[in-house]
């Protein structure tokens, strides 16, 4: 089988109605598949005003707003009309991108129809309960995820560190890698703009510590704020620049120093300019499976201080392109940021190293790795292979 023989049915709970790294990666994948001659159809909730234009044809699936997080929608399953469309399309592989109701129904349908099915892993859902006071639920969530992923022929992690976690959690017997790429035209040191810095109130010699991403508690906003408090107690000079929007913005604004700068949501060239115009990225999140913003900051020539967790540990080389700090070690986070605030030479050296390291993450190359995975799974199924959970 060749790539031109592929007919991929992609199931996503959020393909383009909210902008985040996961759905942007899925849209890039669809674009790459289509350029290679593959056929793709996407099954996802649709909204009147999506965050960005979708790549490929999207078939709407019924959904409801997610309680407490109305910007997201919960797909309700695969009704008869959508099943008929699937049969007409004639998919030879199903790809599910999230373990909600739509994903479960898609896996069940694929198994009933005898089609291979793969899953891509985009976030560490089992870590979310701890940010909302329900840490005791983590084992149950992990068991739920294990049941979902084990019903797939294979799963794909965005980093080797995340793949190792999935193996240790016994999520699948076949764990591959579909990493993420970076657009080196959008994210480059050349987009650094001193006039833009001045326009938001940054002095030319004032170190800017960036937070980039959706403002939700699971991104480690509490750790970020506590670390900045520790720096202030020791007199370290530096300004916080928050690039992004989200439901926790009001909490974050109250929790950070009064001179923190909130740029709001930025996209494409504006996002590239905002990142390159800062001086370092602080990413304390432990929920990432890859860390798109970490790679984008590296491509922009910024050192990265990050939690030593899945995703970041596959990108950041400790002491070379930035610092990897044990999650929860807020004093160590503060010391690392203090170094880059006070030592421009160390900051510049780490930024150059990060830029060099980012050059190996070309989008076409990483998407071809997943295409190769599709073809391998289909060949295995044609040779009589089955998901291990079904064969037992």
Report on the architecture of this protein:
With 392 residues, the protein is of the alpha/beta class. The chain folds into 2 domains: 3-181 and 362-387, Rossmann fold (3-Layer(aba) Sandwich); 189-358, Glycogen Phosphorylase B (Rossmann fold). Helices cover 41% and strands 17% of the residues. The protein has 15 helices and 15 strands. Strands 3-2-1-6-7-8-9 form a 7-stranded parallel sheet, sandwiched between helices. α3 (101-113) links the parallel β6 (93-96) and β7 (117-120). α7 (221-233) packs across α12. The longest helix is centred in the last third of the chain and has 20 residues, at 363-382. The protein is globular and about 65 Å long. This is Glycosyltransferase family 1 protein. Residues 20-185 form the Glycosyltransferase subfamily 4-like N-terminal domain. It is an enzyme of class 2 (transferase). Its EC number is 2.4.-.-.
Write the layout of secondary structure elements.
Layout: E1 7-11, H1 21-35, E2 39-44, E3 57-60, E4 63-66, E5 69-75, H2 80-89, E6 93-96, H3 101-113, E7 117-120, H4 138-150, E8 154-157, H5 160-168, E9 175-177, H6 194-199, E10 208-212, H7 221-233, E11 239-243, H8 249-255, E12 261-264, H9 268-276, E13 280-283, H10 292-299, E14 304-307, H11 312-315, E15 322-325, H12 330-342, H13 344-358, H14 363-382, H15 388-391
Parallel strand pairs: 1-2, 1-6, 2-3, 6-7, 7-8, 8-9, 10-11, 10-13, 11-12, 13-14, 14-15
Antiparallel strand pairs: 4-5
Helix pairs in contact: 1-14, 7-12, 10-13, 12-13
């Amino acid at each position: 089988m060749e790539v031109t023989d592929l007919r991929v049915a992609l199931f996503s709970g959020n393909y383009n109605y909210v902008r985040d790294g996961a759905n942007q990666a899925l849209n890039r994948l669809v674009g790459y598949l289509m350029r290679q001659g593959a056929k793709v159809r996407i099954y996802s909730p649709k909204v009147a005003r999506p965050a960005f234009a979708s790549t490929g044809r999207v078939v709407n699936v019924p959904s409801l707003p997610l309680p407490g997080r109305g910007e997201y929608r919960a797909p309700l399953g695969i009704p008869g009309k959508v099943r008929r469309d699937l049969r007409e399309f004639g998919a030879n592989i199903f790809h599910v991108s999230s373990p909600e109701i739509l994903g479960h129904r898609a896996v069940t349908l694929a198994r009933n129809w005898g089609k291979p099915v793969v899953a891509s892993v985009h976030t560490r859902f089992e870590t979310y309960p701890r940010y909302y006071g329900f840490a005791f639920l983590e084992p149950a969530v992990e068991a739920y995820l294990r049941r979902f992923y084990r019903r797939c022929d294979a799963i794909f992690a965005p980093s080797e560190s995340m793949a190792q976690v999935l193996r240790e959690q016994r999520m699948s017997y076949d764990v591959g890698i579909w990493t993420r790429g970076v657009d080196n035209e959008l994210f480059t040191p050349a987009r650094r703009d001193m006039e833009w810095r001045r326009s938001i109130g940054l002095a030319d010699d004032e170190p800017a510590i960036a937070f980039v991403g959706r403002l939700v508690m699971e991104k480690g906003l509490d750790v970020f704020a506590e670390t900045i408090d520790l720096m202030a107690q020791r007199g370290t000079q530096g300004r916080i620049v928050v690039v992004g929007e989200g439901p926790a913005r009001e909490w974050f604004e109250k929790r950070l120093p009064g001179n923190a700068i909130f740029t709001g949501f930025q996209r494409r060239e504006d996002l590239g300019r905002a990142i390159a115009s800062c001086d370092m990225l602080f990413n304390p999140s432990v929920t990432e499976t890859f860390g798109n913003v970490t790679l984008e900051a590296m491509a922009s020539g910024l050192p990265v201080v990050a939690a030593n967790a899945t995703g970041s540990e596959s990108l950041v080389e400790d002491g070379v392109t930035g610092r990897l700090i044990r999650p929860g070690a807020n004093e160590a986070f503060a010391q690392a940021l203090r170094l880059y605030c006070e030592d421009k030479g160390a900051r510049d050296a780490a930024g150059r190293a990060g830029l060099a390291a980012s050059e190996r993450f070309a989008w076409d190359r990483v998407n071809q790795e997943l295409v190769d995975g599709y073809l391998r799974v289909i060949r295995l199924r044609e040779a009589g292979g089955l998901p291990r959970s079904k064969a037992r």
